[in-house]
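To close the chapter, one final illustration. This time we ask the reader to focus less on the individual chains and more on the assembly as a whole: which components sit near each other, and how the overall shape emerges from the parts.
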Amino acid sequence: MTPNPTRRARAAMALGGGIAATALVLAGCSSSPNAAETPDEPVALRMTVWTADETQLAMFQEIADAYVADNPELVSEVSFEPIPFEDYTTTLTTQLAGGNAPDLGWILESYAPEFVSSGALADITDTLKDAEGYDYDDLVDSSLALWQQDERLYAYPFSNSPFAVFVNTDQVAAAGQPNPADLVASGDWTYDAARDISAAASQTSGKQGLVVRDFDYRVWENLASIWGGWGASPWSADGSECTLTDPAMVDALTWIHDAAFVDKAMPGPGVTADFFAGDAAMTITQISRASALDDSFAWDIVPLPAGPEGQQNVIGQAGIGVFANAKHPKIAADFLAYFTNPENAEKLATYFPPPRETLLNADTLAAANPRLSEEQLQAVVVEGIQDAITKPAHVNFAKLQDAVRAELDALWVADADVEAVLASTCEAIAPLLEG
Amino acid sequence: MTASALQAVDAAERRGPRPRRSAVARRDWIVGYTMVAPVVLGSLAFVIAPLIAVVWFSLHDWNVLANTFVFSGTDNYERMLADPGLHNSLLVSLWFSIGLVVLNVTLALFLAVLLNQKLPGTTTFRTFFFSPVVVSLVAWTIVWSFLLQADGGINGFLAVLGIEGPNWLRGDVTAMLAVIVVQVFKNVGLNMILFLAALQAVPEEISEAARIDGAGAWRRFRSITMPMISPTILLVMILTIVGSLEVFAQIAVLTGGGPGNSTTVLVYYLYQQAFRFNDFGYASAIAVLLFFIVLVLTLIQWQTRKRWVFHEN
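The assembled structure is written out below.
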């Protein structure tokens, strides 16, 4: 008797399912790459990035090509896939959903907890520690915090770019205002001083005052560079409680609201102003933007001002992770160890302040940032990374970002009731913080 | 010839041409199916299969980051019932559709009637109103986003007239109005051309006869033109309503769903759930809901056409 075809198909499906399930279990067990085993054939690795800067990509490729030359049995090529910043995380997750995970990818700090806790990233601790000459202990502990879970590292924070204030000294001088660098020296560089100078400069020039770059009244987390001076944060350190209604945050957001709507020191909603095009007197942004400056106006760069709670450094981080569901996580982790070893980290420091203690000095950074003086680098970068906090991050960040954005829209009108808006925001995000 | 011989000949004749017929039929069959194959295969691969897949996904809890794909039955559908965000987006979509359909159809018909007059320059105006249809949607929307800013072109123009314009994209009502107007100007030209074609197909004799009978312009339009172009009105209504439910780029570029959630239409909400919150299972359930809304709306209009579309049986 011939076997019933349906039964045979079912048996084949069961077998196939069994094999798939076993493969999944094995894949799950082996998500901690520590040594790259030699594959049958050299593999091609792919890393997603959000920079499209050709000189940066050329540098990555140069490092990658050297790795390929050293390890021809492991890797045939490493390619870097630029994805526009605005759609970066969305495109990345779509690739993951489509079963087309890159081997490695840049990850935004705000999404770090979500990526780390979800199991999307492979544990790279042992690979980095065991890599020859890696000097794992040189990595600054505070910069790793966001990328760790249970003391295991899931991504390498390759960029630790401090937020600073760029000043158009031409516009400030034209308004007869004190030079911010002098205020830094005298210890009078406060947010109130920055607001008054910006308001006066704006009135004189007819342009804008202080611009928090990329905030645009939507990307509220960029305001962290200001509210740090008030010692405020949107939620508790463990991410379970809303702290937007704490007096520190109410005061900080009242200050921001009034700076925009009362003092006219900041552009209001719907007004675009690009500091680097000469549209504004000051901007708070990351040091890495210095490359956008030309010599069309005189400029300076100073640390973030002090708030009522003193001066708080804030950094923006970005990590490189190895995707657990990629085809070759072990080899990808091995490449990451090479890409970020002390020698290559120094090369990368040209654009991305590294998380390595030994490289965080004005000498190393000066070679990489010719537009900034050693004094500026010492004050803004080297000291800016010390004791710095990062922008808000949470395991539920995407939903929180949207929920807070929707609620804070009520704050960005002239007659807003700051306390009421923040109370309503806390109410809206409470379930997301608990979840 | 005996009867049996006749039968044999008859049978042979029947057998004779049969292979020829069947060869022709087979060839026709092959040619026919080859010709429709690209469309059929395309529809299967890019319409039917994804449609079935979306229904299947909607029955699962699928988080792409965590790489979980767990059967959850009707959980996603039950969640829709208790999701205030979804209810808000349905309401926003309703307002958007009403605003868009009323404004778009009225304006398109008005422009078509104007351009149907035998006046000089109508071709230029026709091209003028149709040109946005062929412009890239995203480029069109980005240009409008600059015009609609607080210090943008529209408020600059109003300031010249001594009027202080609102911050269009930051007020609940003005943001919705802005998105509707941007969409209307983008597509009104297409509807206008459809109406114009229909108007030009209305026989002049009927209108002429009514005029001789003493009917005024409005009466002629209401009692003759409108019934004669009613099939086109139906078509335009269906296209506009279905199109209004698909609006996405304008929301993403102009308002991001804000201020608050006042312009978070259903498709934008779906996009957020899938691509921002990585909740593909729930987003699939919303896609199924959207599919049924479009299906039901189209069926209702199709069924009611007999009552109000002229010369439908």
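Residues 19-71 of chain B form one domain. Chain B has a mean pLDDT of 88. With these observations in hand, you are ready for the problems at the end of the chapter.
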